[in-house]
Every structure is written in structure tokens, then in C-alpha cells.
Amino acid sequence: MAEQILILDFGSQYTQLIARRVRELNVYCEIHPYNKVPEITSDIKGVILSGSPCSVRDEGAPDIDLDSMRGKLPILGVCYGSQLMAQKYGGEVLPSEIREYGRANLTHIDQHYDLLKEMTHGSQVWMSHGDTIKVLPDGFEVIASTPAVEVAAFKVQGEETYGIQFHPEVTHSLEGKNLIRNFVVHICGCAQDWTADMFVDSTVAELKAKLGDDKVVMGLSGGVDSSVAATLIHRAIGDNLTCVFVDNGLLRKNEFEEVLDSYKTLGLNVIGVDAKQRFYDALSGLTDPEAKRKAIGRVFIEVFDDEAHKIEGVKWLGQGTIYPDVIESVSVKGPSATIKSHHNVGGLPDFMKLSVVEPLNTLFKDEVREVGRSLEIPEAIIGRHPFPGPGLAIRILGDITAEKVKHCRK
Ligand SMILES: Nc1ncnc2c1ncn2[C@@H]1O[C@H](COP(=O)(O)OP(=O)(O)OP(=O)(O)O)[C@@H](O)[C@H]1O
Fold first, then answer.
1. Which of 9, 185, 360, 371 has the fewest CB atoms below 10 angstroms from its CB?
2. Are residues 211 and 174 in the same domain?
3. How far apart are CA 292 and CA 80, in angstroms?
4. Are residues 132 and 219 in the same domain?
5. Where do the H-state alpha helices sit in 63-161?
6. CA–CA separation, 124 and 122 (whole Å)
7. Structural domain count of the chain
């Protein structure tokens, strides 16, 4: 496992941006909810505590036991994260006179501290908070201030524990990236070697070890996620991966043929399934958009299940799941109630009983594109305009017929 930064999420709308900024420095990081802290292994080089919509003064406010980390690992608390530490260790957090949302300038910066190295006097930062730290605990010292906020940043003496009131992860904090680099590289000592090429090498090795001689089936949509996931799996296990690309009769003009061709050029073992008529039959007479969407989903599952059955001994289902889907399903606010509604065991199609392999489930979309480029997937696939599953059906009012699709395509 690569070295990483652990981001503990207290529910802020900016948490994913913290992860994006860290990864832009070629350092791997993961977001975990504050109440499900993973085991702290030696790969974890530092911890960032996110902001939160809550106030540390609220009853039942999100809390965390930091004693096992403090002094052993560098910690950076952002906004709520910093207030939480201040309050926990004997300081005082009070409501600000006015809720501060917007630009502010650091008029006092103590450059002696690694966190603030090369930050310029007057540096613009972004504030978004209703509380403020009024009194710091013993052993905590102020290292940056704005005219309105005295404790804009603090450090704990004798340990690499820091708190900042502003949000370095948003672009309005003009030197925010510099501050995050100071933390991640200079304080945590991360090597900045997490690149798309390195991801490809390590993921292909992991897939080889995990899949061995097993067979995998995977649906391709022509979109970037499934294409990149399939190419990675193919690198690992070759033709033990069977890809299925379904023509549902709702794709754009010439799209089925063109996409199928590019998959073949990539060397993928791909079956093109002409299921147009099955979809048109199922859609016949349906006019309600939700009913149409459901019919398309149902027939897709039936067609895919039929194809998966033809592959003898297949054990795995490949999927193009990406990191935002994963974060959503384990978020502080709880998983979306509808994500798994189709998982009523018993009625499951056979392919859903397969084990799932998701090689992209730690990546953001633009990282998936970078990995695609590293795999030399054609730009036409990597930069393809996103196209919804129900395809052209969403553009057609009333019932859907082959004739109407033909006009829509033109
Ligand atoms: N026409 C199709 N033929 C076969 N499989 C498909 C097809 N359309 C979608 N899929 C499968 O269903 C998954 C989800 O489809 P969706 O349209 O939501 O894609 P997505 O999540 O945007 O990912 P992608 O970037 O791969 O399109 C795809 O990743 C693919 O595995």
C-alpha cells in the first residue's frame, strides 16, 4: 500500500476538495467518516480533520478520540477540526460576532513554522465559520491571524499538531495549495510519487494477484469509467475478461459501431449485442418517463444476464465505480436510501451474485482520465461527452419507437 494521508470527514461540503488538493500533489489520500476511523497503519503519514456544518458547541456534536494520534502523527485541523481540538484540550470556542463567510487576509504570519513557510504577508484566505476560538489550551500558540480572527492558525508546542480557521482547499485561499504542500510534504514527509503510471503498475499487479486465472465479465457503456476499468483488468488477465457492449437502440448515430471498433482496437475481448428490438418491444406503449427508465434498466439487466450466462465458470463482475460513489455510500450523512434498492436477494439476476471487482473505486473522475491516458486509451473515449444510460430515450416525448429514434438521431 502506498503512503497516504487520512482525511477524517465531519460532513463539510469541502471535504472532497481537501482530497483533491492532496492528490494534486501526487500524494494518495482517503476520506473516512470521523466515526469510522480506520486502523492507523504505518502507511498513514498524517491526518487532516475536515470542517463541518455543525458547531462544536452543539449537544452531540461530532467528536473523536485523538489521544492515540496526537504527538505520533502530524495532524491538521481545518475550521471545525481546529475548533474541536481547541475545545477538547481546554480552550474556549464561542460564536463569532458575525458569521464570517468570504475573503480575509492573514496580517500576521509566523514563518518560523513549517506549515506557513513561504506564505506571504496579507495572503488571501477563505473563511466560512460561525464560531471562533477565543481561548487556546495551554501549550497551543497562535501562528497566524487576520484582523477579525486572532486564532487563524495555531500549533501545539512540541508536536506536529496544527489548526487553521480558514479553508486552504478552496481556490479563493490563494496560497492554500502551498499550505497543504507544507503540511503533506514538509511536515508529513510524503514522497509525491503517486502518479497515474504508478497507479497502473500497482493496480495491474494487485488485479493479477486477486483474479489469478478467474474469469471476469463486464459491461461497457462507451463511457470513460467502464472503458478505463476494463482496460486495466485486461492488462492484468487478458482474454479472461469478457466485455459486453449492448446496443439498446438508444445510442447516438453510428455510436455502437464506432465504439465497438475502438474497443477492438484496444485489444479487448468484446461482444457486441444487438438488443434493439428487445428494448423497443419493452418500451412499446410506455409514455411515463419513469416507466420508460425502469423498462430500459430491466431489459438491460436481462440482456446482460443472458450474456453473462454464456461465459462458463465466470466468477467476477467488473465495474467502473469511482471514488465519489464510494464516499457517497459511506458518508457521514449515511448512505443514500435508494442506492441498493435492487438488491433483494432471491430475485437477483445471476450476474449480481458474482463477486465485484472495481479497480477505479479510489479515483476521482479526472484521475480516471489520467489513468486512461497512461493506458493509451484514445482521447475520443477519454474525453467522450457524458451520455445517460437511457440514451436518446430521454429526448423523446410519448412512446418510443424505432422511427422516432431515427428522427432524433438525425
Ligand atoms: N450499452 C451498454 N452496454 C453494456 N454495459 C453498459 C451499457 N451502458 C451502461 N453499461 C454498464 O453500466 C454501468 C453504468 O452505466 P452508466 O451509464 O451509469 O455509466 P457511468 O457510471 O457514467 O460510467 P461510464 O463512464 O462507464 O459510462 C457502466 O459503467 C457499464 O458497466
1. 185
2. no
3. 45
4. no
5. 80-88
6. 6
7. 2
